Amino acid sequence: MENLLTNDIVKQKYANYEYLKENKINPYPSDIKKDIMAEELRKKYKSLGQEEISEKQYWVAGRMVALRGHGKTAFGHIEDFSGKIQFYGRKDELGEEFFEIFRKVDLGDFIAVKGNVFRTKTGEITIRMKEFKLVSKSIQPMPEKFHGVKDVELRYRRRYVDLIANSEVKDIFIKRSLIIQKIREFMSNRDFLEVETPMMHTIAGGAAARPFTTHHNTLDMDLYLRIAPELYLKRLLVGGFEKVYEINRNFRNEGISIKHNPEFTMMEVYQAYADYNDMMDLTEDIFNHIAIEVCGSEEIEYQGEKLSFKKPFARLTMVESIEKHANIKLDESMEQEDIFEIAKSNGIGSAEKSMSRGELINLIFEEKVEEKLIQPVFIYKYPVEISPLSKNNEKEPRYVDRFEIFAYGREMGNAFSELNDPFEQEKRFLEQISKRSDGDEEAHRMDKDYVLALQYGMPNAGGLGLGIDRMIMLFTDSSSIRDVILFPTLRPNKEEENKS
Question: Measured between alpha carbons, how far is 130 from 57 in angstroms, rounded to an integer?
Answer without folding.
Answer: 9
